[in-house]
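tokens incoming
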């Protein structure tokens, strides 16, 4: 007896697919449940299995053909009795499947890209049609290398949707901005955050550190204004300063939640990990469930680098988050790392009265900047009493009755023991790519641990995007936000790309450092003939009235076109001053227009104007 086998439902509302492989030939004997075909849809590759025991009589499609659900794909010869038994068994299975959680063997979804989660659908065509909006038919089994998705059902936890158009993983400055913008563009968005809304930046990074730096600066200025005829003694309650800092953080993180909700974003407190191309497992305090998605944005951020043997314990070995939560400033602190985080925190704590010893393997502070820039900050740090141990690596530590002893070693093998109340490890940050099960969606990070993306933030999988720290340098909150807006627009079908002429960066040391675009060396490497204008703060009236004459502004331009290419600023409020240069780059402004823009007097921003004029040989207040 002949059994005509039509292509079963493939799930994900797919109505057709491409036959990518056929595992049998006419004349082959197969058993029910044995894989015979592989069909690829836009969202999955499905293994189609034989519905009966029998012999393959004819294959009605060839590899590469597009086949529709319900189309005849294969014929089988069976005995009359076996055929009847098979028909009865298939009917029984179809009736039972409505209450049976186990799938039937007709189709196995491999690398499923849009599964919904009802594992107990009806196997009949009518039931499949009725349940088309609820997920795949029972002929579909989702397969994952780590954990079968069929073990997860959707919609069982309060607040967790069964499906969403856009699943954003991580609610830092990239993730929450992406979620809000996607919702504003009319998409259904679910934002999953396992820790705290606002991410590292708002909770343990940018915002709290700047709050601490601000408090430290007030205390230091009040006690170091003798040249101005001002003397004062200040009592700093570090615990209260930290409490005030926490209030700022709470206000901003609460604002993030409010903005998300106001824009219709579904917020889920939990951890999301990919199961397959269009499904994620979400674990909350109430349990686990699954969420099906059309698109996903990975915005999991970064974490502090840990030095082997110096894992933070929150008491003797600290990370940057621990430093921001001191109840009292320590008398003595060893800081491993003189990069931007190390220098920001070291200078702030020094102003609060802590004796700081900074250990740095390299030969200077802030290795990402040139000597002219780093020298200004290093000399200021030395004036604050910070001791530097350059060319030394921290190799070991031990606890003492009063604190710690850290052993350092030079390149020549010379060892030194340094004692302090505690040691803070601020050696940098690394992208968090190990928490979302990227293997399940076929994404492999680079050797540096980043996820490669295109000009829209899209990964190798067209429906999965990555933004922020996981997408590569520079690891900056404003870069993450910008990428989040672009990714959301791309998903919504809007014309968008990461085409910013430049992204500014700032270090909140004393004085601040800010840069954007190209340095002179970078411009030359890029094929320009650069011209550089420079304005020292010692010639700026506002800097002198602030008793802050250390620093300068450099503006880099192309000699031929006079187009502004970049700037480097070392000055109070450099993080604010760099904004106008960034606008100049985006507007493709030339030196004539830049230097010819009238600036308020007396202001620090006049130094930017003067540097632009100097690049043209027209500076008034410098030579």
């Amino acid at each position: 007896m002949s059994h005509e086998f039509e292509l079963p439902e493939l799930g994900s509302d797919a109505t057709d697919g491409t036959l990518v492989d056929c595992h049998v030939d006419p004349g082959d004997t197969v058993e029910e449940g044995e894989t015979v075909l592989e069909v690829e849809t836009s969202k999955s590759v499905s293994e189609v299995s034989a519905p009966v025991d029998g012999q393959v009589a004819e294959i009605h499609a060839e590899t590469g053909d597009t086949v529709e659900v319900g189309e005849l794909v294969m014929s089988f010869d069976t005995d009359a009795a076996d055929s009847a038994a098979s028909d009865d068994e298939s009917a029984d299975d179809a009736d039972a499947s409505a209450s049976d959680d186990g799938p039937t063997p007709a189709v196995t979804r491999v690398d499923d890209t849009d599964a919904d989660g009802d594992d107990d659908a009806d196997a009949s065509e009518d039931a499949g049609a009725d349940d088309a909006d609820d997920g795949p038919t029972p002929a579909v089994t989702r397969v994952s290398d780590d954990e079968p998705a069929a073990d997860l059902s959707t919609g069982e936890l309060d607040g967790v949707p069964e499906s969403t158009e856009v699943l954003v993983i991580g609610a830092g400055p990239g993730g929450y901005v992406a979620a809000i913008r996607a919702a504003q563009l009319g998409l259904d968005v679910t934002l999953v955050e396992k820790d705290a809304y606002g991410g590292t930046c708002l909770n343990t990074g940018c915002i709290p550190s700047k709050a601490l730096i601000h408090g430290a600066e007030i205390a230091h200025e009040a006690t170091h204004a003798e040249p101005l005829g001002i003397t004062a003694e200040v009592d700093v309650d570090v615990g209260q300063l930290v409490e005030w800092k926490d209030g700022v953080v709470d206000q901003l993180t609460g604002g993030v939640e409010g903005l998300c909700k106001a824009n219709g974003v579904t917020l889920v407190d939990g951890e999301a990990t990919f199961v397959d191309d269009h499904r994620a497992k979400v674990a909350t305090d109430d349990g686990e469930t699954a969420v099906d998605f059309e698109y996903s944005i990975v915005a999991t951020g970064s974490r502090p680098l840990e030095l082997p043997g110096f894992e933070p314990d929150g008491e003797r070995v600290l990370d940057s988050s621990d430093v921001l939560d001191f109840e009292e400033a320590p008398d003595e602190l060893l800081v491993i790392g003189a990069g931007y985080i190390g220098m920001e925190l070291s200078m702030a704590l020094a102003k609060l009265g802590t004796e700081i010893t900074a250990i740095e393997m390299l030969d200077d502070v802030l290795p990402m900047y040139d000597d002219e820039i780093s020298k200004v900050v290093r000399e200021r740090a030395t004036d604050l009493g910070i001791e530097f141990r350059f060319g030394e690596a921290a190799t070991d530590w031990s606890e003492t009755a009063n604190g710690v002893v850290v052993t350092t070693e030079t390149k020549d093998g010379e060892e030194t023991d340094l004692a302090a109340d505690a040691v803070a490890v601020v050696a940098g940050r690394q992208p968090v790519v190990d928490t979302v099960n990227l293997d399940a969606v076929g994404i492999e990070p680079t050797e540096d641990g980043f996820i490669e993306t295109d000009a829209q933030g899209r990964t190798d999988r067209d429906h999965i995007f990555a933004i922020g720290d996981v997408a590569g340098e520079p690891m900056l909150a404003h870069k993450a936000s910008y990428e989040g807006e672009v990714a959301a627009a791309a998903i919504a079908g809007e014309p968008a790309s990461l085409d910013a002429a430049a992204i500014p960066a700032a270090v909140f040391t004393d004085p601040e450092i800010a840069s954007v675009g190209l340095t002179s060396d970078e411009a030359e490497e890029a094929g320009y003939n650069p011209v550089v204008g420079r304005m020292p703060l010692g010639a700026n009236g506002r800097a002198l009235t602030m008793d802050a004459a250390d620093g300068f502004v450099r503006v880099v331009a192309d000699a031929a076109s006079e187009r502004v290419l970049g700037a480097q600023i070392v000055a109070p409020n450099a993080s604010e001053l760099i904004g106008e240069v960034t606008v100049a780059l985006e507007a493709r402004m030339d030196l004539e227009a830049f230097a010819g823009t009238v600036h308020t007097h007396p202001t620090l921003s006049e130094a930017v104007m003067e540097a632009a004029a100097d690049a043209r040989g027209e500076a008034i207040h410098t030579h």
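note: The chain has four domains: 2-143, 163-303+431-491, 317-427, 505-615.
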